[in-house]
Amino acid sequence: MTKEKLNILLAEDDLNLGVLLVDYLETEGFDVKLCKDGEIALKVFQSNLFSLCLLDVMLPKMDGFSLAKAIRINDKKIPIIFI
Question: Is the pTM of this model over 0.85?
Answer without folding.
Answer: yes
